[in-house]
Amino acid sequence: MATALKPTSQMSTEEHEARKLLASCYRVFDMMGWSEMIYNHITLKVPGEEDAFLINPYGLHFSEVCASNLVKINSDGEKLDGSPYPVNKAGFTQHSVFHKELPDMHCIIHTHTTATMAVCSTEGGLQPTNFYACNFIGNIAYHDFEGVTVRAEEGERLVEAVRGKRVLMLRNHGPVVMGRTLPEAFITYWSLQRACEIQLATMSMGKPIIVPDEVIAVHQRDLSQVQLPMGAGVPDFAAMVRKVDKIDPSWRD
């Protein structure tokens, strides 16, 4: 049975809870098959701290991430918790600029799943050919591939590309999904992943049916009127964490 992580004199209750939330998300992503060796990142701001966010330790698989081994860093890449683990520069460079410049985006997800990368690598990107894709039409930003994102100067262009949006499709690379909360970012990512999977399947079968703009507008209008009392993605994410707990609850350590 996993041992629950306890707050210390150096760790606030808010950070303690954020660590558990983020660790559980890494395990959910692994369960869903969305991990990529020791690469890719999900980051979360530490509540109550001006410039601090949590990121996965470089070198560990998503299935090994737990509350205690997440690394707390600032937007300059400095470790704030004395962690012995390194931080992937590509993860720091990309995520830190978004956390710094987009203060309401508390959770940021970047992955390399086959479906999302394939759509990012296709001319036209995501197309309005299925229910989930119609959620995103007009709400996605794109950024041309410049190589691995380790140069700080690319950060300005990334921020400029994404302004006003919560999904940035890095062409020939993969998606960046953002949210005001982790559950919100999760359900946005889940919907995008499904949209891309269905688009790949549809394109393999022949010419797709394109949903007209006026129908997309109605679809998005009606979706926006669905208000969940617990917040966007909260019950969805909680359900996935319950599934993870049945497999391995060690993310709590």
Notes on the structure:
The protein has 253 residues and is of the alpha+beta class. It has one domain (13-248): 3-Layer(aba) Sandwich (L-fuculose-1-phosphate Aldolase). It is built from eight helices and seven strands. Strands 3-2-1-4-7-6-5 form a seven-stranded mixed β-sheet, with helices on both faces. Strand 5 (140-143), helix 5 and strand 6 (167-170) form a beta-alpha-beta unit. Helix 2 (89-101) packs across helix 5 (154-162) and helix 6 packs across helix 8. The longest helix has 24 residues, at 182-205. It is globular and about 55 Å long. It starts with 12 loop residues before the first helix and ends in a 6-residue tail after the last helix. The model has no long low-confidence stretch (mean pLDDT 92).
The number of helical segments is 8
Label the overall shape: globular
Please estimate the helix content: 40-55%
The major β-sheet equals: 7 strands, mixed
Output the CATH class name. Alpha Beta
Question: How far apart are the first and last residues' alpha carbons, in Å?
Answer: 10 Å
Reading the helices and strands in chain order gives: HEEEHEHHEHEEHHH
Radius of gyration: 18 Å
Seen as an oligomer or otherwise, the chain set is single chain
Strand content: 5-15%
Summarize the structure.
By secondary structure, the protein is of the alpha+beta class. The chain has helices at 13-31, 89-101, 114-120, 131-136, 154-162, 182-205, 213-224, 234-247, and strands spanning 41-45, 53-55, 71-73, 107-110, 140-143, 167-170, 174-179. The protein starts with 12 loop residues before the first helix and ends in a 6-residue tail after the last helix.
